[in-house]
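Bug #2210: token dump truncated for N-acetyltransferase domain-containing protein?
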Amino acid sequence: MDSVMYIEKVEEELYQLKKKDQTIGTFKLIEFAGDIGKLEQLQVADHISPGRVLEVFEVIQSFVEEEGFAELHVESHSQTLDFLLQHQQFKLDDVEKSLWIFTVNHK
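Reproduced locally. Full output below:
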């Protein structure tokens, strides 16, 4: 069975993506206006497959929901990321800045 990916806070705004106590990626989550988070500097290990990147986003989206954020903002720098963000229910908010926004649905 595949082990679960999880997030660990390293320092203010810096987080690690982990699996089996091994770091597989890092990212920054910058907080704006109390309930808006901006994902920056997401990096994953070279061995992470494109399919796993979807899982990475799912884990991050669940995390921001648990942390009480209302929105998650991401600036895209590639068509590949645009496609992935669209697949993950992000909406293109600002074409010029390539700003995508995921609105958290609190249950």
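Output looks complete on our side. The chain has a mean pLDDT of 92. Marking as cannot-reproduce; reopen if the truncation happens again.
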